Amino acid sequence: METPRNRRIWVGAPFPLGSNYDGSGTNFSLFSSVADGVELCLIGDDDGAHSGRGNTRDHGPIEEERLELSEVDGHCWHVYLPDVRPGQRYGYRVHGPWEPSKGLWCNPAKLLLDPYAKAIAGEMDWSPACFGYDFDDPDRPNTDDSAPHVMKAVVGDRFFDWGNDRPPQVPLHETIIYEAHVRGLTKTHPDVPPALRGTYSGLAHPAVIEHLKRLGVTAVELMPVHQFVHDHHLVERGLRNYWGYNSIAYLAPHNGYTSSAALGQVQEFKTMVKALHAAGMEVIIDVVYNHTAEGNHLGPMLSMRGIDNHAYYRTMDDNPRYYLDFTGTGNSLNMRHPHVLQLIMDSLRYWVLEMHVDGFRFDLASTLARELHAVDRLSAFFDLVQQDPVVSQVKLIAEPWDIGEGGYQVGNFPPQWSEWNGRYRDTIRDFWRGEPSTLAEFAYRFTGSSDLYEADTRRPTASINFVTAHDGFTLADIVSYNDKHNDANGEGNNDGESHNRSWNHGAEGPTDDAGINAFRARQRRNLVTTLLLSQGVPMLLGGDELGRTQGGNNNAYCQDSEISWFDWEHVDSDFANWCQRVISFRRDHPVFRRRRWFQGRRIRGIEDLAWLRPDGLEMTDDDWDAGFARAVAVFVNGNSIPTTDSYGERIADDTFLVIFNASDHPIEWKLPGAEWSRRWTIDLDTSDPKRGTTRTINKRPNDVIDVVDRSMVVLRSVRAPLHPVAATRSPGHPIDAPSTPESSTQVLERPPVDDIAPDSSTRAEGNR
Q1: Pick the catalytic residue: 64, 221, 325, 399?
Q2: pTM above 0.90?
Q3: Is 405 a known active-site residue?
Q4: H/E stretch holding 308
Q5: Quick check: 87 and 50 in contact, CB under 8 A?
Q6: Residues with pLDDT less than 70, the chain
Q7: Do β-strands 98-99 and 104-105 pair in parallel, antiparallel, or remain unpaired?
Q8: Among 259, 383, 278, 404, which Cα is nearest to 331's?
Q9: Catalytic residue among 58, 363, 544, 653, which?
Q10: Is 363 annotated in the active site?
């Protein structure tokens, strides 16, 4: 379509990049260092694709106005259009060299998404026109117009009434993360109106927020909400990229989670954040800055490949037609290029300042640290984050690995970062299924993984502890399946992890055997209770509290179906109540969520904690080294928390003895002597969920209690010793950690209480 004669075209500015409406008109700017020319294409909306939802596909000719950009500064092509308002759809056509062997793919027949687009309309339909090359001759460009077949960028409107919205700013040590999927969480919820299910508005529904509040979580970590693409091989099989780790626009909320075309994805996402904030919950989003949906050299041409391939992607030095791939998805973003770093930092700031999110979880974060081939923890990206006044102040969580050489980097991220602790997940699973030689490792994981994070001044909150996540079995499936069952994915059950550290407890999958079901339920209580009482930041997989199963599918990335959706009809209310109870228990007791390491700087430090055997005596080095050992107790002293609350007041808590019996037989456990406590009461017992909820007869020193096989018991001291105790430690330690003086004194003075524990006790204010 020709440019209207009355179209006003002004010079504009090179920054900010993207399309930016200022109340009078819109400035457009696109970076490309290889372009010989750039056309801004304004797309009409008469084909209905502007809604951005569902399966809208443009197949016929579209209304398109092309404007040749004549202004370019610093490789930024720009123009200001005073007549363009929010809602205008647009794209770019880039003219320049076509030399695939040199990694140059400019093809003006392809309508390209603005990398800075803040909203996206429609979907791509995987027509051959979406590809830049000819299928019969990859060295020859495909000249079919892709505009009818691809997504379009939309000019956004920054206005939104945030009212009195404030970030909850929950301290990391008080944070409990709930990993969720926008669509899966609400798709079948009976109290959410059908039109809102599977959308941002559905997640913001009062029924959903009430469930999360009642559970006690403080942060919702959303799986990818950046605009993403459904992979071709999945679409061909009638599947979808359900997880969404296939981003194509880093400033745009995914349009498939929008309930209303009139409201739009940006406004709807902001409304969701505002509702969660009002309920006291933070929003963390899972971001995928390591690769894009354009794939390898045979992938589609949707955006960055056609704009400036060398700038945006890592190509092979000796053959730039091909991409370096550290992610297993075909390409890796070029973290060495300043405009790529700028795009990522601009995206992060946008989501904090404009969308009000409270933090980020970085997918395959090791890729972001690759300056050349090696992972460099001091790479430019992390330097930029460190000095950024906005991004450095929110929660930053790394998935500390990728598939490249040296990509497993647990414990190696900069001090202000937290990390998904994969070693925690593996150790806790192995311990509770009775694997040998896990006791010492278990002790480190339970106390915050100081061996991984303490050396460079990091705190226990550097460890994001989890037993389950979106990638793998659900909690119910960990205790119900020995093997993966991924046939529905259409890959012959060859996808997904084969070594799951799971145990079916005697039957593969669902069973009518009451004994096996009771055993599985106890193991789920063991796993979630261990998680919530460990030092660090616990993360629950959304739906685990409901008993959600994926039928043994441990790689449901393509299952936008009942396999992945929460089953709100068949809720395990007993387990949901247990999760709520233990979360509340953690919230009430700051000794389980300390801000700093145990002062002894070793697992058996005398002032803070001690490790005990079933005979009531302290562990020796030989005990730690015994591969057959499956049981241990940890004494945690609530009277020696070294930090104050936010008002500078000393934090005091109860003192606890937590007993873990991961063996296959019950144990008669002897409580320690009077120097530890003169009375104990049982608060939690995973073999009997009702225990500790009513008045409990106290246990005395040296009493014996029965600890069921594969269970844990939490006892609280209700009468402290009369005198401090000086204990003698055996030299050395089975785990390589700094030692403490052998003659330290443990102070356990607390006021005596009645021999009968009350139903509930007054707690000290939480550690803020």
Answers
A1: 399
A2: yes
A3: no
A4: helix 304-312
A5: yes
A6: 1-5, 46-60, 370-378, 401-407, 599-607, 695, 722-768
A7: antiparallel
A8: 404
A9: 363
A10: yes
